[in-house]
Structure formats: C-alpha cells, structure tokens
Amino acid sequence: MTRALFRLLALLGGVLLGLVVLDRTFAVDSNLYRSVSEDLARLSTLDAQLDQDVLRSRLHILAHYDPLVAAEVEIRAIHERLLTPPPYLSAAGRAG
To answer: Where is each DAHL domain found (predicted)?
Structure first.
C-alpha cells in the first residue's frame, strides 16, 4: 500500500510539474502585452491627428509643419518598436 501511494504521489507531482512548465511556456508577459497595446492605440491616435493636420495644412489653417513632422517621427519610432513581433503571437500572426 505504501509503495502504491508513493507511486501515485510521484505521478501527481510529475503531472503538476508538467503543468507548471507548460503554463510558463505559454504565459504572456503582461508588461510586453500592455506596451504593444499602448503602441497600437497611440498609432491609431497619431493617424487621426495626422489626418486632421494634413487637412488643416491643405486648407492653409496650419501655420507650420511641426505637428506633421512630430507625428511622423513618433509613428516611425513606434513602427521600429513593433517590427519585432511579440513572442505570444502565433506563427500566422507573425507572418502578417
């Protein structure tokens, strides 16, 4: 009886260890996820802002091009950060 109990406990311990390793393998880094989400939200905001500024520029309402340049610089910086896909994306998601 003791030997059977020991085997059962060893088996349960192995299964538990396997589940912990599996959980760690597929875990999503919450800081990375938040960072990518914030970058994507900021891109959306910058795109809308850029559209408005281009329209203002065409209508000669925008006095200078500084907002256009600043938005473009920030868009490029975010694009550079997002070039490397996060590891939690599937292969299909990484392919684009």
So the answer is: 28-94
Distance between first and last Cα of the chain: 57
| Buried/exposed code over 34-55 (b: 16+ C-beta within 10 A; e: otherwise) | eebeeeeeeeeebeebbeebee
d(C-alpha 38, C-alpha 26), whole Å: 22
Q: Mind listing the pLDDT tens digit for each residue in 4-53?
A: 877 877 888 887 777 767 666 666 778 888 999 999 999 999 999 999 99
Q: Does 11 map to a domain? A: no
Three-state DSSP class for residue 62: coil
Contacts of residues 36-44 at CB distance under 8 Å and 24 or more positions apart, as own/partner, are: 36/82, 36/86, 39/78, 39/81, 39/82, 40/82, 42/74, 42/78, 43/75, 43/78
CA 41 from centre of chain? 11
- Residue 15 belongs to a domain: no
